[in-house]
Specification:
heterodimer; A: 255 residues; Rossmann fold; OB fold (Dihydrolipoamide Acetyltransferase, E2P); 2 domains; five-stranded antiparallel beta sheet; 15 strands; B: 338 residues; alpha+beta; Heat Shock Protein 90; five-stranded mixed beta sheet; two-stranded antiparallel sheet; 10 helices
Chain lengths: 255, 338
């Protein structure tokens, strides 16, 4: 396959097959006047992240409303890749997102996409600066479904549903699933803001998943911390409840 | 120039077979009895006894009138308003006279007031009730107009429109035949959406419309959208408010199918039990699903239109189970006048 360095590698992400095929057609039309190739296709955010781990891509055309993982969340995880591609959002109709895009000068295309618009957006792509994470977070009206962890140059997605607890440790947050631990570069306060519905703060440095709490237990010999620990289903570890947070035991019992 | 409102409004007697109308009549008459009892006595116990004796006197006339009106309802509907009123008032006089004679025959010992007195009472209360229904229909007539507007608002989401156009565009090069069919479906769908949607529409037509809508969705969603029709026993001629089924199915697709990458089933069930038409819709539902607000708005809109058309006789119930969402609508069975 001959490919010079200027060829733009494009990935298509949309959950609807006809929408993908439409973009493919348009990209073929664009290819007549600019060097580009379709590097791959994905039908949701997760698949896209998988694709990007193995295939170099310069620009992603990313649909917003998709099952499993929507486009805005996927764009957040993409930023953690070693060489994140540029993102151009596509959407048929999404008043909320479009307003936000205008506000933050994020590139987007409305479906049905016009050939000329696509062409313009792709020709500009090299000039596009990567999307700042905080802007993306502002665009996302709901908590993410996954957290992304960087490990040995790869991005690993951890489903928030599977997380048992999150604990702040020095510079990182440790997130624990039934299988293993991951190190996450985010602040616990920020995580609590985003996932407050799902997680309960039992300690200044610890959030536990509400639906995994089995019981709270009093431990006599536990010294300074007042002696309450949280026991989570499917985990041997006992997580101390700080004296300041002991009120949550009562509140949780009432739920 | 006549205002739009006057153009659309025409006075008519209430539908005496409607449960809501019957309940309202009962309630008004009982309130009048209570009012009269309170006027005639000085304490609660006295008022209560008085109330019972008035009700005992009024009850036979009330029940008999309601039964006769129920029987005559179809015929009364065909009369113009003024004649209808005359007939109802005359009917009340006849009822009172009949009961008066019957009372005298069966309880010869009892003291009765004068017949003219009872007739006057019956006439004033009937006139009061008819006036109430007149005012009520006046008050609701702008609402009925609004029902049409709301039907327009309940229409297809722009989300669906643009995605469908996009899907059709994708077909034009590879499968022009399917693109043609899709555009035809779309044209039919929008013809209905843009029509005057004030009047009731036959169920069969609403089902057809929903089918066309689903054809378009299938185009986009492919195997993810599976539809389970149970309409073998549906009363196709039954009249239902327009654009109730389609928006509900659209909801089911938007909330139940689109958020999942796995295939899901939307089931549509339409059947008739005695004098009721039942529409039951089910779709898969995930608890953490989003876009809840829109759903509630569409439901509130449909609920409102059901009650505008059928008062208390139609109902809409939603049930949320572990993994499914169900909407169950019951509408009184009416069919096209032949």
């Amino acid at each position: 396959m001959s490919r010079n360095a200027n060829t733009l590698r494009v990935a298509i992400t949309d959950d609807e097959a006809p929408a993908r095929s439409r973009i493919r057609d348009l990209l073929e039309d664009c290819a007549a006047s600019m060097a580009l190739e379709v590097a791959g296709e994905a039908s949701d955010g997760r698949e896209l992240i998988e694709l990007l781990q193995t295939t170099p891509v310069d620009v992603v055309l990313l649909d917003i409303r998709m099952p499993e993982m929507d486009g805005i969340e996927a764009a957040q995880h993409i930023q953690k890749l070693a060489e994140p591609p540029s993102v151009i959002f596509t959407t048929a109709y999404d008043v909320y997102a479009l307003k936000a895009f205008e506000l933050h000068a994020v590139d987007y295309l409305v479906k049905p996409i016009r050939l000329r618009r696509l062409h313009d957006a792709l020709s500009r792509v090299r000039a596009i600066t990567p999307l700042p994470l905080d802007v993306l977070q502002k665009l996302a009206p709901e908590p993410r479904g996954h957290l992304s962890v960087q490990e040995r140059g790869r991005v690993i997605l951890v489903s928030v549903e599977k997380i048992l607890y999150m604990r702040a440790e020095l510079k990182y947050v440790t997130i624990r699933t039934a299988e293993r631990e991951y190190l996450l570069e985010e602040s616990l306060t920020r995580l609590e803001e985003e996932f407050g519905n799902r997680f309960l703060r039992i300690h200044r440095s610890c959030l536990v998943a509400r639906n995994h709490i089995d019981r709270f237990e009093r431990v006599a010999e536990e010294g300074a911390d007042g002696g309450w620990v949280t026991i989570l289903r499917g985990l041997d570890e006992r997580l101390p409840v700080s004296r300041r947070q002991q009120h949550v035991i009562k509140e949780f019992g009432r739920l | 120039m006549a205002s739009i409102n006057q153009n659309l409004h025409h006075d008519a007697l209430p539908d005496f077979r409607n449960l809501g109308v019957i309940l309202r009549v009962l309630l008004i008459v009982l309130s009048l009895c209570l009012f009269s009892a309170l006027c005639q006595s000085e304490n609660w116990a006295g008022a209560f006894n008085q109330f019972l004796s008035i009700v005992a006197l009024v009850q036979p006339a009330l029940v008999l009138s309601l039964v006769i009106l129920w029987v005559l309802a179809e015929w009364l509907r065909k009369l113009d308003y003024a004649r209808g009123i005359a007939v109802v008032l005359l009917l009340e006089v006849v009822v009172v006279m009949l009961l008066y004679r019957a009372g005298q025959a069966f309880f010869p010992g009892d003291q009765f007031g004068r017949l003219e007195h009872y007739c006057a009472l019956a006439l004033t209360s009937t006139a009061l009730i008819l006036y109430y229904f007149h005012l009520r229909s006046r008050a609701l007539s702008p609402a009925l107009m609004e029902a049409r507007l709301q039907a327009l608002q309940a229409r297809i989401r722009p989300h669906f429109l643009f995605n469908s156009i996009n899907a059709v565009l994708s077909l034009i090069r590879q499968e022009p035949k399917r693109a043609e069919e899709a555009l035809e479906d779309m044209a039919d769908l929008f013809r209905v959406l843009m029509a005057d949607n004030r009047d009731l529409s036959p169920l069969a037509r609403e089902v057809e419309l929903t089918r066309q809508y689903l054809n378009l969705e299938q185009l986009r969603l492919g195997a993810r959208l599976q539809i389970d029709w149970h309409i073998e026993n549906m009363p196709g001629e039954a009249l239902i408010p327009p654009l109730v089924l389609q928006p509900l199915v659209e909801n089911a697709v938007y909330h139940g199918i689109e958020p999942n990458s796995e295939p899901g089933v939307v089931s549509v069930n339409a059947y008739k039990v005695r004098d009721e038409v039942h529409l039951v819709l089910r779709n898969p539902y995930r608890k953490d699903g989003t876009h809840h607000v829109g759903n509630k708005m569409a439901l509130a809109n449909i609920r409102e239109r059901l009650s505008l058309h059928f008062d208390a006789e139609a109902s809409l119930r939603t049930t949320l189970t572990e993994d499914a969402y169900q909407v169950h609508i019951v509408i009184p069975y009416r069919k096209l006048a032949t």
